Amino acid sequence: MNKPSSGETPELDYAPKLPENKDMGIAVVGAGEIVTSCHLPAYRMAGFRVVGICDIDPVKAEAAAQAHKLPRVYRSLDDLLADPDVQIVDIAVPARHQPGIVRECAAAGKHLLCQKPLAETFREAKEIADMCASAGIRAASNQQMRWAPGIAASRSIVRRGWIGRPVQGTVQVNVRTEWENWEWLTKIGTLEVMYHSIHYLDAIRYVMGMDPEYVYADGARWPGQPYKGETRTLIHLKFPGEARGLVHDSHNNRQPQDDWYATFRFEGTEGAVGGTNGALYNYPEGREDTLRFYSRKLVPDRPYEPALEGRWFPHAFMGPMGELMLAVQEDREPENSVRDNLVTMRTVFAAYRSMAENRPVDLHEIE
Ligand SMILES: NC(=O)c1ccc[n+]([C@@H]2O[C@H](COP(=O)([O-])OP(=O)(O)OC[C@H]3O[C@@H](n4cnc5c(N)ncnc54)[C@H](O)[C@@H]3O)[C@@H](O)[C@H]2O)c1
Fold first, then answer.
1. Are 125 and 152 part of one and the same domain?
2. Tens digit of each residue's pLDDT (9 = 90 or more) over 101-130
3. By residue range, what is the domain housing residue 97?
4. Within this chain, do residues 29 and 104 fall inside the same structural domain, yes or no?
5. At what angle do helices 198-208 and 149-159 cross, to 10 degrees?
6. Mutation test of ligand 1: which of 36, 54, 90, 93 has the most ligand atoms closer than 8 Å to its C-beta?
7. How far is the CA of 83 from the centre of ligand 1 (A)?
8. Chosen domain end from 124, 143, 162
9. Quick one: which H or E segment has residue 305?
């Protein structure tokens, strides 16, 4: 354990790890909101080499290429896959289109970064993992909250043993989200968990370093909401032994932004770490994450409050791509592999089954 002396604030290891060799050519499929506001700005910060983009709407692909100075606009996915300069395909389209795109990319032998959720059914998510494995490519999921500064720092604190054995992981969010910014999401029956809390479920298992066994969830709408799916959820996770997780999330806060909150907290046998997820404050600008932790392994009862740099959006997007590149270069599975992501997907589908059947669901039921 690397233990600071009593006076100093410990150095935390939370910045995304980037490969020294950044020559790999990346091509992007989808030129929508998340690509233009996060993927491409983050890749520029990281110094990654994006060689081109395509979209079924060529006007959007052209606009993104111009705004971000990308060398090529591909006419089609086939055109993109035929480019030998492309080693990694970065997919960012609505989930229902992802399995078909993965099939073609895997057949072409390109490494893949898939957006979350992997697919809208567990069967298709599993097919994605199987197709990538049999094609012998490296495939990762873009659950970039793992690299949000507060979550990455919490993971580093837990892994150093500073809070002892993790016993509770909690994310609580109460903000206002205008889902009409993503027109296709307003019509989707599985909204909040599948498209938002999926990040919290993935982040909790990442920081706790273990997978849930049971999920007990409830989801509800807000009176008069114009969206089809649930917009407030309560998800209880039962991990092995005494460890538990909780996600309590609502996107219906009608009060001024002063009233919004987005917090995380991990408690262990030797201390606790918690903070705020700055991306959801001061919307749309956001602010830096905050972090405070206590550790009886360091100085008991002393609060440590290290300042963190970067945000969940866009900075954390350097992380999943950086980890995929490192995995390719080191010939190993990425820690955000699509195979690993099947556990997060199982948790999501278990949450929906729990809501529908009003009972705790064993993760093994999701196959
Ligand atoms: N990781 C995150 O935090 C995060 C955040 C937002 C969105 N997302 C995910 O990213 C994906 C895209 O979201 P968005 O907000 O950019 O949506 P968007 O609607 O703004 O953009 C989607 C784009 O995909 C294009 N498209 C659709 N089908 C296509 C196909 N078959 N081939 C090529 N292009 C196609 C559309 O024309 C559109 O330009 C979704 O899966 C969403 O869940 C992830």
1. no
2. 999 999 999 999 999 999 999 999 999 999
3. 25-143
4. yes
5. 20
6. 93
7. 22
8. 143
9. none
